[in-house]
Amino acid sequence: MSATAYPAFPVLLVDDEVAWLRSLRYTLQRAAGVTNVLLCEDGREVLGLVARYDVGLVLLDLTMPSLSGEEILARLSAEHPAVAVIVISGLNQVETAVRCVKAGAFDYFVKTAEEDRIVAGVVRAIRMLELQRENRDVAAHLLSGTLQHPEAFAGLVTRSRAMQTVFAYVEAVARSPQPLLVTGESGTGKELLARAAHALSGRPGPLVTVNVAGLDDAVFADTLFGHVRGAYTGAEQPRRGMIEEAAGGTLFLDEIGDLSIPSQVKLLRLTQEGEYFPLGSDRPKRLQARLLVATHQDLDARQADGSFRRDLYHRLHTHHVRIPPLRERKEDLPLLIEHFLEEAARELGKRKPTAPRQLPQLLATYAFPGNVRELRAMVLDAVSRHQGSILSMETFREAIEKGRDVAASPAASGRRNPFSGLDDLPTFREAYDLLLEEALARSQGNQTLAARLLGVTQSALSKRLNKAR
């Protein structure tokens, strides 16, 4: 089987009419991109082929001379229950159809039915089998608790258990042909995770990345689908779209939460039909790339306000992973600081400075709205300005104060009175004690940092602590 064969498991076509077998194989390849196909003219060979090639789906003719389709169906149901069987009969008999379904058939079609109905039935069966196999693989992978290819995630520096769980899930679904949705705040590393998923996919084609934020509908369509010569004024030469560029590989669409509704409709059709039309062309092309999408937007909220289509969300949500923000994995701070110090020293041609022992504690008091990307910028700025061997903490304090000023500005979103909605307000003393407790927890007991968080002097904080004792 070639690396781009679809689906991953063989589809076995069984019929004693050779012309019908070849016609059906051609139809499935042309209309649904099904290329991993085996042909069988003798019903007596079916069970051997299923066992030998790990067949996932069988399209079975009922009327064959050597062994009837119903006998084969019964034996497949008994010996290979995980294999889906679609019965295709030359006769439209309701009783036979009911009997076959009761015997374990996934579906029943008449040969004279429209090709589209048979193809749609095959696609449904393939998707069901893919999901079943993927669910088994994911469960087994997560239960094992180990990564088979940790090197794929080398670009994401972490010791967080939450991130390790993310890695295990991505590794488990990396070879799936279904879309993978990656969500997370800006700066968490969504593109790095997409690169890891592509590296683990085993696909020989390239990873093609398109940031769709800000693209209007016309540019979005031209970027993805390409165009033929004369498709519009100025289209003097044909151009391949990014979908075609990614053939055999992965197409990564970043910031899909910012797509306009018309562009969402186009993306929905692509995921539903698996085909698209270059602008100006009436000949469809098939999607031959795995689709990865990412967004920092809250898609649940955007569905609720009508700015993101629910049907597209469910299409893209087959596999979903959320990257936790840096404030939820502060155990990564020491590791990330060292990593970015080495990177900054290398980029700036300087000797790597030593980080102060209190630096991780200071940074742990900050929420990092820009996540890992913001931390990297902080470290790079500090290394570019430092003199001597020990890194100064002053540049980090300045960056944190600036970040907090931005977060506290009227333009900043999401800041609200923590006491609003409470039936009983705390007293000043109770509120101060709670603030003090939280500041000490965030600073890991460091009174200097706790005082800075509360906006008081260290002596004032010490007096309050002494009174509390």
Shape: elongated
Supply the number of helical segments: 19
Overall pLDDT confidence: 88
Which superfamily, in CATH terms, is the homologous superfamily of the largest domain?
A: P-loop containing nucleotide triphosphate hydrolases
Distance between the termini: 74 Å
Q: What kind of sheet is the major sheet? A: 5 strands, parallel
Overall number of structural domains:
3
Given as residue ranges, the uncertain stretches (5+ residues, pLDDT < 50) are none
Helix percent band: 40-55%
CATH architecture of the largest domain: 3-Layer(aba) Sandwich
Provide a descriptive summary of the structure in words:
The protein is of the alpha/beta class and 469 residues long. The chain has three domains: 11-133, 3-Layer(aba) Sandwich (Rossmann fold); 145-324, P-loop containing nucleotide triphosphate hydrolases (Rossmann fold, 3-Layer(aba) Sandwich); 328-409 and 424-468, Helicase, Ruva Protein, domain 3, CATH 1.10.8. The protein is 48% helix and 12% strand. The chain is built from 19 helices and 14 strands. It has a five-stranded parallel β-sheet with strand order 2-1-3-4-5, with helices on both faces. It is elongated, with a radius of gyration of 29 Å.
Topology, please?
Elements: E1 11-14, H1 18-32, E2 37-40, H2 46-53, E3 57-61, H3 69-79, E4 84-89, H4 94-102, E5 107-110, H5 115-144, H6 161-173, E6 180-183, H7 190-201, E7 207-211, H8 217-225, E8 226-227, E9 239-240, H9 242-245, E10 250-254, H10 261-273, E11 275-276, E12 285-286, E13 290-295, H11 299-304, H12 310-316, E14 319-322, H13 333-348, H14 359-364, H15 371-385, H16 394-408, H17 428-442, H18 447-454, H19 458-468
Parallel strand pairs: 1-2, 1-3, 3-4, 4-5, 6-13, 6-14, 7-10, 10-13
Antiparallel strand pairs: 8-9, 11-12
